Amino acid sequence: MTIKDFGKGLKGDLQDAVDTVKQKTKEVEILDMKQVSEVASENIKNLFKKHDVGKGSSKENADETSTSQNITRISVKNAIKTIYFMMAADGEIYHGEEEKFDTICSELDQDFGEFKGTIVAECKARLDKVIDPKDYYDALQDSVGEALSQNSPAETSFITPKILVWNLLSVAYSDEQYNETERRLLKFVVRKLNIDKADFLEMESSMLTLLDLEKELAWIKTTNRPYLTIEAMVNEIADRKNIIMENIMDLVSL
Q: Residue 63 and residue 61: Cα distance in Å, rounded?
């Protein structure tokens, strides 16, 4: 789910689906989950455009008390590294995660394709240094912490902490298996960037709700309910999605 004009665009696409129902009285064709996801990605992407700010155990306990820094911006390349480490958090990179990674990173930097190989190689090299599997999470967290702390003066493109967290949530949920390792790493990022706990929980809850609404929309396609009933359900889902996305836009813009 990569946010600007999302509500308007999605509602229009959903209404188009309803119009199709009108034309085919006995044949209901509504956007399936994949189509909705593609619409969401296209309409949300403006939020993730790069921000040009001008030329300018005991381990678990330590994790929970990690000192936050006053980081107000993250260079796009370091944000991409962080997103990669999130994608690799569970030890295996799934196809859905890789697709989401490519989509988000291309929106963050239009030249992503030119340096993707270099960044991925750097990230893999760090993780390949892990000696014992039990140290894997520690290596991930250390790598993310380093990426978030480094902002080269040569970099001119940055994104804000909240936009990065929303991107990380998008990747974490892309395979519909938001596991404890991914959430633990996300919580570390939230603390490192000094993001308010309530804001993170709201973003997390919003992402879950959006996924549930997509599943509900897909389910509607399997029903044989009357057109008017389906139309009302589709419109209700569109309205709920619009409200959620407007709230997220407001939240990450603060």
A: 5
